Amino acid sequence: MQNLLLSVLKRLKSPVSLVALFGALFICATAPTRVYAQPPQCDPASVLSYESCAKCHGSEVRVWKQTPHFKTFEQLARDPKASEICNNLGLRSVKRSDVCINCHFTLQTKGDRDKPISGISCESCHGAAADWLEVHNDYGGNTGTKETETEEHRDERLALSTAYGMRNTRDLYLIASSCYHCHTVPNEELVNVGGHNAGSMDFELVRWSQGQIRHNFLRSDGQENAVSGIERLRVMYVVGLIADLEFSTRATANATQKSTYGLAVANRAAKTATKLMQLQETIKVAEVEGVLAAFSKADLRTNNEEQLIAVADAIRQLGQEFAVNADGAELGLVDSFLPTPDQYK
Ligand code: HEC
Ligand code: HEC
Ligand code: HEC
Ligand code: HEC
Q1: Is the N or the C terminus of the chain less surrounded, counting Cβ atoms within 10 Å?
Q2: Within its chain, how far is the Cα of 143 from the centroid?
Q3: Cα–Cα dist 263/23, whole Å
Q4: How many Å apart are CA 296 and CA 327, to the nearest integer?
Q5: How many whole angstroms from 155 Cα to the centroid of ligand 1?
Q6: Is 126 a pocket residue for ligand 1 (Cβ < 6 Å)?
Q7: C-alpha 167 – ligand 3 centre gap (Å)
Q8: What residue owns the CA closest to ligand 1's atom 22?
């Protein structure tokens, strides 16, 4: 066991050879029809729409409307590349297929159908809100205010909102999961047949969340859209790498053929593991050690769904533990890995 672990970790140090290895292990197989992956926990039946946030989160909505997440709703159907992808897949149009809309749009149940109501919205990232809306801002009955709320009540409130399906900003792993689920594009047919890109390969959570999509007004009572503090960014950086590894391992689990998709997602997993290892040499965090050990068991080949999902689940467990336990104040060694503000996307 120990030897196997060491040898895989050694191989991981040179991603090129890992990819070669992966290539060699790839077994050509005829592809069974795959079910399209759904976005995480955004049940159209519980979606309220961004308009129900606007009353209290006007500034957040204004920022969001400037982002590609909002604009894709109008722009996707006009994008020649989108028509090309639809043609390749034999789909009539972007809005009338259930493939593109799951990732590019927000769906809401109207009557007996799920209809696209906007681009990627508040609820795509924070969770469908019907059950948590009333809970998430309840400072305590009619008289409670932000100022009078006890620390205890705040903890309970946020825990309760999570239980009702909110991906709130306290739990960085949950919110990171939203991003990586979409930005790994875990859909083999979409990539191999449709010609869609195989995900955002340079996606890194700090860089991608602190630029144009940032909407941190709450901390200053709406005065300022603040970049998160250094201690939070440190945790966010590590969480982002762990979540990337989880979701690229999940994406590899969907690979049935040795071609563009399978190679791209497996490559991503291997590269991310290498990055995480380099970080771990410096930071030496128990959960990260566990993540690397779990990943070292991953056999990155086609048609290996069961094993790779089990590895991804193990990574997820540790990532969540890290997000809960981590103290940014003690993670100063992460600083040299962080992107600089001019790199924020
Ligand atoms: C009636 C007013 C109101 C509405 C409507 C509302 N919010 Fe909030 N929201 C608040 C308040 C107040 C807070 C601050 C709570 C605190 O102090 O922790 C908050 C906090 C948040 C937070 C940050 C808390 C955290 O830890 O993640 C998020 C995210 C959020 N709201 C999302 C939404 C979304 C998405 C919608 C629409 C589906 C929405 N809110 C609708 C009042 C509202
Ligand atoms: C699993 C999520 C997912 C699905 C499903 C999906 N997309 Fe995308 N798409 C993305 C992401 C993420 C990006 C942004 C990638 C980047 O540039 O970093 C993107 C970008 C694009 C772009 C712009 C980039 C380019 O290549 O020019 C087009 C066009 C596009 N998608 C079309 C489609 C069409 C058409 C469908 C349906 C047939 C579809 N997408 C389904 C996630 C998805
Ligand atoms: C429901 C799917 C989905 C989720 C969730 C999601 N994204 Fe995206 N994101 C997309 C798609 C699709 C695009 C490309 C839109 C387009 O250009 O048509 C995109 C584009 C972006 C862009 C612009 C990229 C560019 O090249 O300019 C950034 C930045 C981004 N996402 C960051 C994030 C972050 C950070 C998160 C999580 C906090 C996240 N996204 C969650 C689907 C998603
Ligand atoms: C692409 C994913 C994504 C979308 C879309 C999105 N959020 Fe967020 N939201 C995040 C992330 C990630 C954070 C945490 C950022 C950080 O800590 O730097 C956050 C933080 C917040 C916060 C807390 C900010 C603070 O100061 O602590 C509120 C409130 C919020 N979002 C509300 C909304 C509302 C309302 C919408 C819709 C208009 C929305 N979000 C759309 C990902 C998203």
Answers
A1: N
A2: 37
A3: 8
A4: 26
A5: 15
A6: yes
A7: 16
A8: 168
